[in-house]
Amino acid sequence: VSWTPPMPDRDDVRDDETAAYDRVVNQQKAYDYVPFVKTFLHPEVREAFPGDRLQPYFAAMLQSPLISAGMSNLGLVYRTRGEFPDGMTHADREWVDMVLCDEVECFWVLYVHAPDAASVGVRPEAILAMVEGRYGDLTPEESEKDRFIRAVINGTMKADQYASMQALVGTRAAVEITCFTGHLLKTMRLMQAFGVPDTSREHLIEWVQAIVDGKVAIPDSRARVPSPAAAAAAVSN
Amino acid sequence: VPYPPPQPDRADLRPEEVEPYDRLVARQAAYDYVPFVRTFLHSEVLEAFPGTKVQPYFGALLGSPLIADLISELGVVLRTRGEYADSHSQADREWVDMVLCQELGCNWVIYVHAPDAIAVGVRPAAIQALRAGRDDLLSADELEKAEYIRAVIGGTVTEAQYARLQAAVGSRGAVELTAFIGFLIMTIRLNQAYGVKDIGDEALDEWIEALAEGRVELPDPRSRVPTLRTPPSPSPA
């Protein structure tokens, strides 16, 4: 059952919002998900993530284009932090996606991001272990990051836990992993509140197993990484 | 290891980060909290919210200035939604602050926002009822919105619940209020993850009692409704 608010018609948008509206539509189109969604094994995932048009979440958010643009810009910036040697790596960013979606049970986002995660270096076997609840099969580093992300989600962070992450990834990357976790928590809870339809854990496990077995084409690791210059321009505009 | 992560020195930033850094500092200063924090009855609140300089939360976020600026700017947009007839009210937004911070256990934000909340029409007795866990003392409208806010936090919003919110605040208002709830979930969890120091229950309850008894001067209800930046321009072709 879905009650996702529909995308408003551009003609109904206030004058001061049309530039933001257009920007969100263009930013989302630029990710070019059309060939990617054809690889999905479970058609219901396309209800949340159709690929050939704006996804329902951003369509709903476009009821308020300035808010939607702010959130889309944040996504753009987060995706580029791994381009800097002292920033959150792309693998860490995708690991946040995996762990957070597992924690808040938003399966379709994990489904959509798992191939990107594998393409930037997340172990498919680690994703499978997590979605199957075999947390003991994670490496010590995966496990530390897993616990860190869940501590952000649940408000249970301790000073020594933060310090340990900072020692592992650096000062700036620790700040970025933390705020990306917050950003994604916000995003997942909004999707759930807007009734974006989900897939099942069973289908998610089948999908991740297929990735582990090499039966799914993994996207180019650069496919979803915009240029840092475009991200900086989006902030300045 | 300093915790919360300290505000970086401006001289250590990458060139494209200087403008966003300066913009955030100026934006936070523009709220002019100096006279406001002088009304506080408990000096420990100043650790999280000094008023005279960038608060530790934004100081930590400035470890990655593009992200910090976008988050801060999104806060501006969200604070202005109540200025439009087709959105939720400013009182609804402040009610989110009260309910959500109570739910996630962040006392200092309740402390700082309670005067603003009362100034825009939130009942002091309703805040006291929240603190005491007495939902039975809330009005029907306060309770309905409190339950909705809790459902967004927990990822349990139902279609009927969303429809009731839409009926209460309109289609656009429902999207914008929900977006604000998501934004505040992010904000509070980041405050906690960065180790921003909280205050105790006793100080908070004393403060709310003082507010309820009219012993604290309330801010002008317009004082925390900022001016938007120039609307974003279209992306270059």
Describe the structure.
The complex is a heterodimer of chains A (237) and B (237). By secondary structure, chain A is mostly helical. In chain A, 63% of the residues lie in helices and 0% in strands. Chain A has 13 helices and no strands. Chain B is mainly α. The longest helix of chain B is centred in the C-terminal third of the chain and has 23 residues. In chain B, α6 crosses α9. Classes of the chains: A mainly alpha (237), B mainly alpha (237). Chains A and B meet through α1, α5, α9, α10 and α11 of A and α1, α5, α9, α10 and α11 of B.
What is the compact description of this entry?
The complex is a heterodimer of chains A (237) and B (237). Chain A has 237 residues and is mainly α.
* Range of helix content of chain B: 55-70%
Distance between the termini of chain B: 45 Å
Query: Helical region count of chain A?
Result: 13
Shape of chain A: globular
Helix percentage of chain A: 55-70%
User: What does the main sheet of chain B amount to?
Assistant: none
* Weakly predicted, low-confidence segments of chain B: 232-237
Please name the two chains that share the biggest interface, counting residues whose Cβ lies under 8 Å from a Cβ on the partner chain: A-B, 69 and 61 residues
Mean pLDDT of chain B: 94
Give the oligomer, counting copies of the same chain as homo and different chains as hetero: heterodimer
Number of strands of chain A: 0
Percentage beta strand of chain B = under 5%
Given the C-alpha coordinates, what overall shape of chain B results? Answer: globular
Radius of gyration of chain B: 18 Å
Order of helices and strands of chain A: HHHHHHHHHHHHH
Mean pLDDT across every amino acid position of chain A: 96
Low-confidence stretches of chain A: none
Secondary structure tally: strands of chain B: 0
Task: Assign the structural class of chain A, choosing from mainly alpha, mainly beta, alpha/beta, alpha+beta, or little secondary structure.
Answer: mainly alpha
What percent strand of chain A?
under 5%
